[in-house]
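Email to the structure team, subject: Protein-export membrane protein SecG model.

Hi all, the expression group asked for a predicted structure before they design truncation constructs. Nothing fancy, just the tokens so they can compare against earlier work. One-line instruction: predict Protein-export membrane protein SecG, return tokens.
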Amino acid sequence: MENVILIVHLLLALGLIGVVLLQRSEGGGLGMGGGGGGAMSQRSAATAMGKVTWALAIAFIITSISLTVISAKNASGSSILDRVGGGAPAVEETADPAGELDTDALLPPPSAGGDADAPLVPTAD
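Reply from the structure team: attached below.
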């Protein structure tokens, strides 16, 4: 169903592009095109091309909303990162046989040449 709506959506997009390109220019933005004399603010009668444009635009919006609804229904509760890479690595907890957390395993090893509580300061070469 989603593929059918997607194909109709693409055909509507191509049709809408074609109809808009076939219409006569009314603004004269580049100094070319239609509109003979008079004030530019006059409203012209609705032409067949204008009605076709409106119909294609409304159908395009309806298929856009339909594809959005279908996509939302098919989306799972997981993140895209869960599907791509598996997410963040899990942290292993080390415990002794009594079930207590071994806090020494979580600390980094002490440095070989100095005080473990001393702050790390870069030395000048």
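Helices lie at 2-22, 48-74, 80-84. Residues 49-74 form one domain. Ping us if the truncation boundaries need rechecking.
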